[in-house]
Design a protein that fits this description.
This protein is an alpha/beta fold and about 210 residues long. The protein has one domain: 3-Layer(aba) Sandwich (Rossmann fold), CATH 3.40.50. It is about 40% helix and about 20% strand. It is built from 9 helices and 7 strands; from the N terminus they run ααβαβαβαβαβαααββ. Strands 3-2-1-4-5-7-6 form a 7-stranded mixed β-sheet, with helices on both faces. The chain is globular. The protein starts with a helix and ends with a strand.
């Protein structure tokens, strides 16, 4: 049984990454020879496990991934999941007290600064967190590196979490609640930073951009 099949068998019901998305990621990794990779938002760690399995198949590479400290309370959490799958050696998870943006700051100010080929961005989703997060990821991404944005059309108003916690939407204007913030960042911020729109994948609600090579 392949590790992908093992993830499906043991953790197929866990949110959020599906097998078709994982197969898509595998193709992307192989086509672009991705090795030094990062991920924003791991939740239970299912997406991290799929990425680690891809790196294990390649016998090369490492994933650095970020989420909030509350992710430790998930059942199973990322550490339990990776240990069970024998993939812990491929992943370094960071548990942020408040925000992954401060954890990225720690990497940015490290000497020598780590550099990555690829970022799977699936965290925050609001204009503030994703917008600033993209700027910080850019500082850690090698020239020619790729960012894959998830949930391109996510909105606060359409989110089950915010629907169940309406008080958390009160500080936001109506247009911000209704605007797909990730798409707005795709349309405005990333071109401003010099990124090329490689391709959008509507079936997966994802968009791929490439950092300028120079």
């Amino acid at each position: 049984m392949s590790t992908f099949d093992k993830i499906d068998t043991l953790y197929g019901d866990l949110p959020y990454m599906s097998r078709p998305k994982a197969d898509f990621l595998r193709d992307l990794f192989l086509q672009n020879n991705l090795r030094d990779v990062m991920e924003i938002g791991f939740f239970h760690g299912k997406s991290s496990a799929y990425i680690a399995a891809i790196l294990e198949e390649q016998n090369a590479g490492h994933l650095t991934t970020f989420d909030l400290a509350s992710a430790r309370r998930k059942e199973p959490n990322i550490e339990e999941l990776l240990t069970h799958l024998d993939l812990s050696h491929r992943v370094t998870p960071f548990f942020a007290k408040r925000s992954y943006t401060w954890e990225l700051q720690r990497l940015i100010t490290t000497t020598p600064r780590p550099q990555f080929d690829f970022c799977f961005f699936d965290g925050g989703h609001t204009w503030d967190t994703t917008g600033f997060g993209v700027v910080l990821v850019d500082m850690l991404l090698r020239p020619g590196g790729l960012i894959l944005l998830d949930d391109m059309d996510w909105t606060m108003e359409g989110s089950k979490y915010y629907q169940n916690n309406p008080a958390q939407m009160r500080p936001y204007d109506r247009d911000e609640r209704q605007t797909p913030a990730v798409r707005r960042i795709w349309d405005t911020l990333l071109p401003h930073l010099g990124y090329e729109h490689v391709k959008e994948f509507p079936d997966y609600e994802m968009g791929l951009v490439r950092k300028a090579a120079g």
